């Protein structure tokens, strides 16, 4: 069987390729040129070395235009309107498990593979063995139909085990390479990226829940819901947290910790791996947030309301709310609002 393996020049996809070959698959690597700002030349040099070591052919495809429109512009726009985007989740849906799937036929492959840390039984995705590296949260949006065609060779390994394998097969320099950034198209920090599109450093006022001016902020794109630092209050009161971002008025709304607690979260763009309109789930509102008991109710094909039995904190517009049954991924959606 021929497998089209997404290769990035990193250790994870290198070892994933090796593991596929060990299992007897015929592997073709594919490097996608996603964002213009990324140093493709450097990545391709790494892939060249890796492919020589492991022994596989690879192809290069340009998806810059789609990435620009579906991921990069979405990312900039989200910050501009005061939301907190999740470009990796968007990229997985649109690019890595979207356009990518179109290349299977072109390269005469029956399956696709990537070095994501997640497990797949062909029907559902499950959290990876390595809970610290698990990427299931970022995969909530991929289409259920493609699951039988996707292999994740790393799901049953820890990152340390992957590094060990890398060393064993002569890829030491990759095993010790510094971990890639969270967001592949950001070299420095995201504010620098935003500066190319709007002024993210336009200072504004901080208000309390009643609308009273109590301080200054350095530009609303610097903040996300739940953040405690980075703004100046006139008086050093007890801790204040960002509870709202009003991009139009260029205001940051702050409050106490309890003001962050939300029991109802509204979602759009919901994607489900199960066929139910109402179900209990453990849901999380951010990648590193705890999974909390909740009931998910679909309101239309793509909109849902999540009722949390214990309050969720740090609920930000633009982030994903992802549903689990134990380790099994049930689906998720994009947060569009929340209430107490
Ligand atoms: N430019 C790319 N072209 C093709 N596939 C890619 C590309 N970038 C990432 N991938 C695939 O997506 C997987 C997960 O990407 P992520 O950015 O999370 O990588 P990572 O965990 O740093 O992995 P790696 O060590 O392989 O870079 C990679 O292991 C790889 O299979």
TrEMBL record:
Superkingdom, taxonomy of origin: Bacteria
Every tRNA-specific 2-thiouridylase MnmA-like C-terminal domain range: 276-335
Enzyme class: transferase
Residue numbers spanned by region Interaction with tRNA: 133-135, 286-287
Alphabetized CDD domains for the sequence: MnmA_TRMU-like (cd01998)
Single GO MF descriptor: tRNA binding
Lineage, opening ranks: Bacteria, Pseudomonadati, Campylobacterota, Epsilonproteobacteria, Nautiliales
Family of the protein in this entry: Belongs to the MnmA/TRMU family.
Residues the entry annotates as binding ATP: 6-13, 32, 115
Location relative to the cell: Cytoplasm
Main location: cytoplasm
Catalytic reaction(s) noted: S-sulfanyl-L-cysteinyl-[protein] + uridine(34) in tRNA + AH2 + ATP = 2-thiouridine(34) in tRNA + L-cysteinyl-[protein] + A + AMP + diphosphate + H(+)
One biological process term in Gene Ontology: tRNA wobble position uridine thiolation
Role this protein plays: Catalyzes the 2-thiolation of uridine at the wobble position (U34) of tRNA, leading to the formation of s(2)U34.
Designated name of the protein: tRNA-specific 2-thiouridylase MnmA
Domain tRNA-specific 2-thiouridylase MnmA-like central intervals: 193-256
Record EC number: 2.8.1.13
Keywords: ATP-binding, Cytoplasm, Disulfide bond, Nucleotide-binding, RNA-binding, Transferase, tRNA processing, tRNA-binding
Gene: mnmA
Active site: 91 (nucleophile), 184 (cysteine persulfide intermediate)
Annotated GO CC locations: cytoplasm
Residues at the site labelled Interaction with tRNA: 116, 319
